[in-house]
Design a protein that fits this description.
LigD_pol_dom, single chain, MtLigD_Pol-like, 5-stranded mixed sheet, DNA ligase D polymerase domain-containing protein, NHEJ_LigD
């Protein structure tokens, strides 16, 4: 049975038109746009709390992960009027714009709208906006752990444990998740004790000094072979990190997946921490949101 090109639906009282539902977006996995929309709809109860109030940047793959993609920050004029938008300054914009109208995913209709645009990856900053659309101070600290080959996520887990201990010694509780790609991230609620990038940089450099064979804190690829790069720069207010429960655009529909510390401690093979959309839906049904606020 052929799926209609366009299907009108109502989502929480909003009228949407879904299109090309049978288009395969992950060819190696046979994962269609309909399955992407289904995943985001079903994971929404645990995903939306991590998106609400945060300006959205999406990575869109209209013809699937094997074809061209583009980043989209600005919500174009044809975006439905019920999608929340906030106008924010973007100093240093590559397109010479003083402000960008960002979408904010506060509800299920907006999430489904972007899923229908093949916005596979959802990226957000470490800060939110208030009810009037003004930027608030950062509320989250993040460390992005990126393995330099031949290192893998296994080595990232070892560094994550070091970071957890260092953060605990300073009164911060770390929450781990996979990146959904090759590495992982650690988050902690941020109390504004200082500028977060400066704090994260200092902690990364301390661990590099203490564990020079395992850790590197500089971005140069030639310095990263076999080590884990602790990317502290994700705390720059202009930068974003893939959201918890977001899909990633690899060969498989993998997900940036919240973890237990027991899973981090017990990781022995890279595949131990690879989770696809169906895996994550099963995890959420069983465990709820492992990335709930500490």
């Amino acid at each position: 049975m052929k799926v209609p090109m366009k299907v009108p639906v109502k989502v929480d009282g909003r009228d949407l038109t879904l299109s090309n539902l049978d288009k395969v977006l992950y060819p190696d996995f046979g994962f269609t746009k309909a399955e992407v929309i289904d995943y985001y709809s079903r994971v929404a109860p645990v995903l939306l709390p991590h998106l609400r109030g945060r300006p959205l940047t999406v990575k869109r793959y209209p013809n699937g992960v094997a074809a061209q993609f583009f980043f989209e920050k600005n919500a174009p004029d044809h975006t439905p009027g019920w999608v929340r938008r906030v106008s924010l300054p973007v100093p240093g914009s590559t397109k010479n714009r003083e402000t960008i109208d960002f979408a904010v995913v506060d509800d299920l209709p907006t999430l489904v709208y972007y899923a229908n645009l093949a916005a596979l990856e959802l990226h957000v900053p470490q800060w939110r906006v208030d009810d009037d659309g003004r930027a608030l101070p950062p509320d989250t600290l993040v460390f992005d752990l990126d393995p330099g080959p031949p290192a893998t996520i296994v080595e990232c887990t070892r560094v994550a444990l070091m970071l957890r201990e260092a953060l605990e010694s300073e009164g911060l509780v770390a929450r781990p998740k996979t990146s959904g790609s090759k590495g992982m991230q650690l988050y902690a609620d941020w109390d504004g004790r200082e500028e977060p990038s400066a704090y994260a940089r200092r902690l990364a450099r301390r661990l590099e000094k203490e564990h020079p064979r395992q850790v590197v804190s500089v971005m140069a690829k030639k310095a990263r072979a076999g080590k884990v790069f602790i990317d502290w720069s994700q705390n720059n207010p202009a930068k974003t990190t893939v959201a918890p429960y977001s899909l990633r655009a690899g060969q498989r529909p993998t997900v940036s997946t919240p973890l237990t510390w027991a899973e981090v401690e017990g990781c022995e093979h890279a595949e131990d921490l690879v989770f696809t959309a169906p895996d994550v839906l099963a995890r959420v049904e069983k465990r709820g949101d492992l990335f709930g606020r500490a």
